[in-house]
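Our preliminary data section would be incomplete without showing what the modeling component actually yields. Below, a chain of 205 amino acids is followed by its predicted structure, encoded as tokens that our downstream tools consume directly.
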Amino acid sequence: MKILLVSDIESPRIWDRFNPNEYKDVELIISCGDLKAEYLSFLVTMIKAPLFYVNGNHDIGYLKNPPEGCTPIDDKFVKYKGMRIVGLGGSKGTNPKAFEYTDDEMHKRVRKLMPQIRWNKGFDILVTHAAAYGINDQKDFCHEGFKVFNTLLDKYSPRYFFHGHIHLNYGRIPRIVQYKNTTAINAYERYILDYESDYKVQATN
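Predicted structure:
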């Protein structure tokens, strides 16, 4: 299954020069946040695939005008074609109304999802806006990753961890990092992966 990942900036390659042949095999779109609602609606209309999204810290407009035709997965455990997906949007900060959270607040959000995660014997994909601590995050507070994400990765060894928030033009930041049994992918702008062939390490959960 091919999955289109998007985050943080609207890709001119898609927004201005859309070529349907590039996306004809895409079966799922996942947004890791900080994108215009109309851009997500454009994607789900043109590509004809479901779009799941979490909130970025700049997506407060979604509260009044959410992306049409798209499915929010923030604070949710969802299944799609056999894939178990956990969504946790937002970034470090002190204003939850702007999708900003302290470490304690993110821990509480994770705890609420734990019954579903345990019942389903783990998950295959973690979708967030912020990075995990020490995995392509930055040293400043608002771009520092959440340690509770590391805890989830360590305990359940999902195949993939998709995040945004850390722009690739910030410096020498790789797109893909292998973290133990999990392939972590920065969804900045756009990235297409094959769910099976791009998995680097056999999952152990």
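The chain has a mean pLDDT of 93. The radius of gyration is 16 Å. Preliminary results of this kind motivate Aim 1 of the renewal.
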